[in-house]
Design a protein that fits this description.
3 strands; mainly alpha; about 160 residues; Rossmann fold
């Protein structure tokens, strides 16, 4: 992430990765204030994909994508007067040839899940855990539907 102030949002991605038992690293490195560190982290990373959270100009994901062939998942952060729209536009408008998967503003949970989906392509155990996760979500919605139907009968 570009700043330690991004942790409040980005910890949601970490929670998902932990839930699925995925190894990860977490760093604060700025595309603008510590560009050499950012490039070194990318070049020395032996993992499968990156999740980059940044607000405002949000160049972190693009800088990472420019230095790797691994998937980069961006989380535009609500960190200023434009409430994350600046970060969203900066992230989603990567130039041709430099793809970055862009989540919703403050969408770190989905970034974690998307990373798990990428990793699950080559990991049957992870794929099975994702299927179970989706079934659990389905069951939770059914419980909520039944509750609302019961409440509607009481009106």
């Amino acid at each position: 992430m570009g700043s330690d102030s991004d942790w409040k949002v980005m910890q949601k991605a970490v929670a998902v990765l932990k839930e699925f038992g995925v190894d990860f690293e977490v760093h604060v490195s700025s595309a603008h204030r510590t560009p050499e560190k950012t490039v070194a982290l990318v070049e020395n990373f032996d993992g499968s994909c990156f999740i980059a959270g940044a607000g405002a100009a949000a160049h972190l994901a693009g800088v990472i994508a420019g230095h790797t062939t691994k998937p980069v998942i961006a989380v535009p952060l609500d960190s200023g007067a434009l409430h994350g729209l600046d970060a969203l536009y900066a992230t989603v408008q990567m130039p041709s040839g430099v793809p970055v998967a862009t989540m919703a503003i403050d969408g770190a949970k989905n970034a974690g899940l998307f990373a798990v989906q990428i990793l699950a392509l080559n990991d049957e155990k992870l794929a099975s855990a994702l299927k179970a996760y989706k079934l659990k979500m389905k069951d939770e919605v059914e419980v909520k539907d039944n509750k609302i139907q019961d409440l509607a009968k009481e009106v």
